[in-house]
Specification:
The protein has helices at 14-23, 45-61, 120-134; strands spanning 29-33, 36-40, 65-75, 81-91, 101-102, 109-113, 139-144, 149-157, 160-168, 172-175, 181-184. With 193 residues, it is α+β, with helices and mostly antiparallel strands. It has one domain (14-191): tt1808, chain A. A seven-stranded mixed β-sheet has the order 5-3-4-6-7-8-9. Strands 1-2 form a two-stranded antiparallel sheet. The protein has a two-stranded antiparallel ribbon with strand order 10-11. The termini are far apart. Mean pLDDT is 87; it is low at 1-6.
Length: 193
Amino acid sequence: MTPRTTEHRPQMSVEDFEELERRAPETVWLEFINGKVVVKPMPDGNHSEIVAWLQRLCMQHCPDMWLHAERGLQTERYRKGRARADGVLVPRGAFKGHGEWSETGAVLMAVEVTSWDADTARRDRVDKPDGYAAAGIPVYLLIDRDDCSVTVFTHPEGGRYRQQVNKPFGSTVEIPAPVNLALDTEPLKEFVD
């Protein structure tokens, strides 16, 4: 009998997922989103360059913060999800002593950069914003290479972000408190081919 995924009946328990993820080969990253195991694609070079670009900007403008790449977070309602964010902005030292999957209390911003796989639309544009909002992460930054845009999601409430601002690459994007950062997104144009 094949388990069916619903909001009430996930494919497996969080504990079983974490054991599966620990045993997965290093070439595969797994996430547990909305009760379903999903494979997160390995980042391509342009994806990695975008995350490095954002890390450098955060270091320059937020010296007491660090943007961790590929950090595992406990997300969704009651921390039943496991998402590996492309970037997580936290105060320096916030993950000290943590295991692979961290609670989100210290997270100021989660970042995702779209990949070139078929699931990116649902995963990065719907499932992850809902999971990050439900976990109380104040800001979700989506760098969408398909749409050549940047979306800033803010004001998490009731498992959803109540505000979204979407701007095309080349615009200045304001990321509000608690991040307080203005991004000149012109450099992102070179990473969409």
